[in-house]
Design a protein that fits this description.
The protein contains 7 helices and 11 strands. By secondary structure, the chain is α/β, with parallel strands linked by helices. It has one domain: Ribonuclease Z/Hydroxyacylglutathione hydrolase-like (Metallo-beta-lactamase, Chain A). The longest helix has 24 residues, at about 200-225.
Length: about 260
């Protein structure tokens, strides 16, 4: 996977990033807010306004205005607060509705459903359901740029957490396989994640994620066979080389893996 830092403005012809100032071990450089617009369009779509940080929200609004556009819609890849907490305030700033898979996070009449096509930014944005990291996770396909906005389903560095119990490993594996097929069939060339830098070899990245999950599952099986009885005990054996400040997230993934193994018996 590609290493490096996020650069404001990274992206494609129709997608540019504005980095939120919320770096942490879990959010990497911070949350990537994406501005989507067809060249020459007077309207833009903003994906994942990020945390409730007034300076960031104003900066996103101002960048849209500087391009001669207005925000037509706000989309959420999922409802975790580092992506969604600023959505209501950003809607108030711009007058744009918020569309989300989870009805609790919508401001307006429309949600995000698998197969939806959004044209508010002057081009097509296709909604791809990718539950697993969370139950409501979606990716957004930009066919004109051969690009995919992945939220937290696929990151720019490292791998994501399966946030048990809302996130389920069986769902996540199915979602990765769905993305593998989409990338191959549509010839996608760019992954635009919710955290970390853009990825330029989507098929290798997604296949690497699938391999990683298979390896972790085998490690969890081995840890349980060796006597680990709780998720914490599995983390101590399997994630001993991982910084302790991410162990709570690792424990969520382990719980998801233990649940998956129990249901597969």
């Amino acid at each position: 996977m590609i290493a490096g830092a996020v650069i404001d403005g990274m992206g494609t012809t129709r997608a540019r990033c504005v980095l939120a100032p919320n770096p942490s071990p879990m959010t990497l450089d911070g949350t990537n807010t994406w501005i989507l617009a067809e060249p020459g369009s007077p309207r833009a779509v903003v994906v994942d306004p990020g945390p409730g940080h007034a300076g960031h929200l104003h900066r996103v609004r101002d960048q849209v205005a500087a391009a001669g556009q207005r925000v037509a819609e706000i989309l959420l890849t999922h409802s975790h607060s580092d992506h969604s907490a600023g959505a209501a305030a950003f809607a108030a700033l711009t007058g744009a509705p918020v569309r989300a898979a989870d009805p609790a996070y919508r401001l307006g009449d429309e949600g995000l459903a698998p197969g939806d096509t959004i044209t508010a930014a002057g081009g097509e944005i296709h909604v791809v359901a990718t539950p697993g990291h969370s139950a409501d996770s979606v990716c957004l396909h930009l066919p004109a740029d051969h690009a995919l906005l992945t939220g937290d389903t696929v990151l720019g560095r490292g791998t994501t957490v399966v946030a048990h119990p809302d996130g389920r490993l069986a769902d996540y594996l199915d979602s990765l396989r769905r993305l593998e097929e989409l990338i191959g069939v549509r010839g996608l060339t760019d992954l635009l994640p919710g955290h970390g830098p853009a990825q330029a070899d989507p098929l290798s990245v997604v296949r690497g994620y699938l391999r990683h999950r298979a390896e972790r599952l085998e490690q969890v099986r081995t840890a349980v066979a060796a006597g680990a009885r709780t998720a914490r005990e599995v983390v101590e054996r399997v994630y001993s080389d991982v910084p302790r400040d991410v162990w709570p997230a690792a424990e969520l993934s382990v719980r998801a893996q233990l649940d998956y193994l129990a249901s597969s018996r």
